[in-house]
Design a protein that fits this description.
465 residues, alpha/beta, Nucleotidyltransferase, domain 5, Helix Hairpins, 3 domains, five-stranded mixed beta sheet, two-stranded antiparallel sheet, globular, Transpos_IS110, coiled coil
Length: 465
């Protein structure tokens, strides 16, 4: 016998469960419980399962509240199925048109196998409970926060003139952040002196920055003072603002380094043979992102499902004999899609087969981003195939001959390059398409600039009535 338990998962309130038989008849409904061992044990006793009874638990992936529930039911031998919220919403509209309530939702989830039995796939992955999946997402978030801080530092340093920016560089390493955190004020930096500044730089750069950088920083400080004069800007207040941003960047940099160490250890456990890292264009961070966000590659029924999970597949609208393909679905995991896009841009410079595909796409009036999305989907398919068979990625020429990475770069450089005019034409076409899709007033340099043609208005002529 087969029973279906529909669970409407709540984050802070009580969950609600309904039990249905194989024909959709409700055995009971509206049982409230929390994610506590005692509550779960009472719920399990209420199920009163026989030895030959199969239990399917259907729930929506509500934030992370579903994860411990799914793990608990799996340990008890139940089959756990996650249902997209859009699918349950469509069924809810069919069953009833009155206001949504939790009691109704649990009944809908319990009856869902009757509507779409082929779409119910067992969920065996731990999801957000997997540490590698969490840590790569956390690293991505911190990197973006630090990038935003660097952009604000760029804007603030522009107030001090170009010399300070040139002296520190644009990568904002540990030594540069240390200088900005302590001596962003050019007057304070000038008072520090050449000898003490040199020792400061040697200590914070581990000897990479010495007399030359100290001389450039002191010259930049004097230039900033000359630029503003005696009654220009409050250097102390500006220095305090820059110091706040630099100190935040220092903390985030230390956190990123700690996360990189954790990611390396977790990736070694997830992919001990380094199959993902053997692919071209895939570095330590990208390989960890792919391993962490995919999880178990065997949980996908086919390679097409993996591509769909990445969102790197086009939208397809079919009607009769007509078929229209639109832009990317962008469904699934956004972080993995972002990592694959960057990896594809590097892989096409090493893998001749991917490079040849990229050239063909560009010659067919594709723009660079569109071509890279195709390459990213192909790269993901190859990585997943290698991962599932535990076979390292093998670079091959267009004739199938195995080659080394150095040979691949040389072949791509000699035979698979896009000429400059093709890139210019593709960029112009994309810009033209963007302008066509715009509505309203035409693009102007400023809102107050005069239009190049009269406004298209439909005024009413009352005298002609």
């Amino acid at each position: 016998m087969k029973l279906t338990l529909g669970v409407d998962v709540a984050c802070r309130a009580a969950h609600q469960a309904s039990l249905a038989g194989v024909d959709g008849t409700l055995v009971w409904s509206g049982r409230k419980f929390f994610t506590r061992p005692a509550d779960l044990e009472r719920l399990w006793d209420d199920l009163d399962l026989d030895d030959d009874c199969e239990l399917v638990v259907v729930m929506e992936p509500t934030r992370n509240a579903w994860v411990p529930l799914a793990s608990w039911f799996r340990r008890r031998g139940a089959k756990v199925v996650l249902v997209p919220t859009t699918q349950s919403a469509d069924l809810r509209a069919y069953y009833s048109k009155h206001t949504k309530n939790d009691h109704l939702d649990s009944k809908i989830l319990a009856r869902l196998p009757l509507l779409h039995p082929d779409g119910l796939r067992e969920h065996t992955d731990t999801g957000p409970a997997a540490p590698l999946r969490r840590v790569v997402k956390q690293r991505s978030s911190i990197v973006k926060r630090r990038t935003a801080i660097f952009q604000r530092l760029d804007a603030q340093l522009e107030l001090l003139g170009p010399a300070r920016y040139d002296a520190l560089g644009s990568n904002y390493g540990k030594a540069a952040l240390a200088v900005l955190a302590r001596y962003a004020d050019p007057t304070a930096l000038s008072k520090l002196g050449h000898a003490r500044l040199t020792r400061f730089l040697i200590r914070h750069s581990r000897g990479a920055w010495r007399d030359t950088h100290a001389t450039a920083l002191l010259a930049a400080a004097r230039e900033s003072v000359q630029l503003w004069g005696s009654e220009g800007i409050d250097f102390a207040e500006l220095g305090a603002d820059i110091a706040v941003e630099a100190e935040q960047a220092q903390v985030l940099t230390e956190q990123i380094e700690d996360l990189d160490e954790r990611i390396a250890n977790l990736y070694a456990e997830a992919d001990p043979d380094g199959v993902i890292a053997s692919a071209p264009g895939v570095g330590p961070v990208t390989s960890a992102v792919i391993a962490g966000r995919i999880g178990d590659p065997h949980r996908f029924t086919s390679l097409a499902v993996i591509r769909a999970y990445s969102g790197l597949v086009p939208k397809v609208a079919q009607s009769g004999l007509s078929e229209h393909r639109g832009g990317l679905t962008k469904a699934g995991d956004a972080l993995m899609r972002e990592a694959l896009f960057a990896a594809a841009d590097q892989a096409r410079k090493t893998d001749p087969q991917l490079a040849a595909k990229y050239v063909r796409l560009m010659n067919s009036d594709r723009h660079h981003d569109s071509a890279l999305c195709h390459i990213a989907a192909i790269l993901l398919t190859r990585i997943a195939t290698c991962w599932r068979t535990n076979t390292p990625y093998q670079l091959r020429d267009t004739d199938g001959r195995p080659i080394t990475e150095t040979e691949g770069r040389d072949i791509v450089r000699e035979h698979h390059q896009v000429d400059r005019q093709t890139r210019i034409n593709a960029a112009k076409k994309r810009q033209s398409q963007r302008l066509k899709n715009r509505t309203g007033r035409e693009q102007k340099e400023s809102q107050s600039a005069p239009a190049s043609r009269p406004a298209n208005t439909n005024s009413t002529n009352t005298s002609a009535a």
